[in-house]
Amino acid sequence: MVQRRGRIHPATFLSKGKLEELREKVKTLEADVALFDDDLSPAQVRNLEKELEVRVVDRSELILDIFARRARTRESRLQVELAQLQYTLPRLRHMWQHLGRLGGGIGTRGPGETQLEVDRRRARERIAKLKASLEQVERERETQRKSRRREFRVALVGYTNAGKSTLFNALTRAAVPTEDRLFATLDATTRRMSGPPAPGERPRAILVTDTVGFIRKLPHHLVASFRSTLTETLEADLLVVMADAADPDFPAQLAEVERVLDELGAAGRPRLLVFNKVDRVAGDEDVLGLAVRYPGSLAISARTGSGLEALRARLWAEAVGKRNEAA
């Protein structure tokens, strides 16, 4: 369902008519969950669940749940749990509101309020512990980054499911898991892209980092808790911004990637725009149109290998240019 409304209803998000329409649709479809493509306030969630009699999930909660299912390493699990707790903490009051009436007389405190205070304290203590653990992880990452600063570093960034991990494996011969789904990668992984030595030089290498994908209206809790992972983009000498050429919505996705990069403080980093999945684009004219519309960009297929030699050559040229500047 789509609602076009100038002002969001403060109590139920939806207008009275749309809420009635949604209630009927829930009954007709026998749905057990109503998903909203925006963030809802705790009061709105409570009111909607009362009206619809099904569970209500907003955009942030859904994305956090997806991240929790995808998290594999200790660092990503810490980051996701921190984001989930920061999202849940202001909503605890409404979770325990149904207990507030029990045993509550004048001058007394009901068990609902007591339990709420306990849960809030435990949540805050856990948040503090998670932040301390992530600070330790960040110190370890900083030590790793210091040892890499002499090398030319490339970070693969872009909208989720643009094919970053597939390209990463193709460039570095790594075996990072790749799946055709959102947020298959949550951890920053760095490997060397080795190349033939230039005449009279030792073998050279470029460090390539695979990063977590972005998405429209990415919850700010996730951006904050994944900052240590996303810092890899701030340290890179070149950002390879990847886009899915076969997705008709790629211009909006590119705009969202730029917005997140700006939010991270990477606005001034050198960039190379790479259109992936050209094997899924209808015709050669469309691929040529990308080159005209986005001068300096490259069109590749990480899956078939098309265009990868041109990309490797471009990366080596950038690395040599950077080294000459330093000299």
Structure description:
Helix 4 runs antiparallel to helix 6 and helix 6 packs parallel to helix 9. Strands 4-5-3-6-7-8 form a six-stranded mixed β-sheet, sandwiched between helices. Strands 1-2 form a two-stranded parallel ribbon. About 5% of the residues have low confidence. With 327 residues, it is α/β, with parallel strands linked by helices. The N and C termini lie far apart (59 Å). The protein contains twelve helices and eight strands. It folds into three domains: 42 residues, no CATH class; 61 residues; 178 residues, P-loop containing nucleotide triphosphate hydrolases (Rossmann fold, 3-Layer(aba) Sandwich), CATH 3.40.50.300.
List the helices and strands and how they pair.
Blueprint: H1 16-29, E1 33-35, H2 42-52, E2 55-57, H3 59-70, H4 74-88, H5 92-95, H6 111-148, E3 152-158, H7 164-172, E4 189-195, E5 204-210, H8 220-225, H9 227-235, E6 238-244, H10 250-264, E7 271-276, H11 284-293, E8 298-299, H12 308-326
Parallel strand pairs: 1-2, 3-5, 3-6, 6-7, 7-8
Antiparallel strand pairs: 4-5
Determine the strand fraction and express it as a percent band.
5-15%
Mean pLDDT: 81
CATH class of the largest domain: Alpha Beta
Question: Under the CATH scheme, which architecture of the largest domain would be assigned?
Answer: 3-Layer(aba) Sandwich
Radius of gyration: 24 Å
Largest beta sheet: what is the strand line-up? 4-5-3-6-7-8
CATH homologous superfamily identity of the largest domain:
P-loop containing nucleotide triphosphate hydrolases
Secondary structure: number of strands: 8
Query: Shape from CA axes?
Result: globular
Q: Tell me the span between the first and last alpha carbons.
A: 59 Å
Biggest sheet layout: 6 strands, mixed
Number of helices: 12
CATH topology of the largest domain: Rossmann fold
Spans of at least 5 consecutive residues with low confidence: 96-110
Q: What structural class do helix, strand and pairing data support?
A: alpha/beta
Helix content: 40-55%
Could you give the order of the helices and strands? HEHEHHHHEHEEHHEHEHEH
Number of individual domains: 3
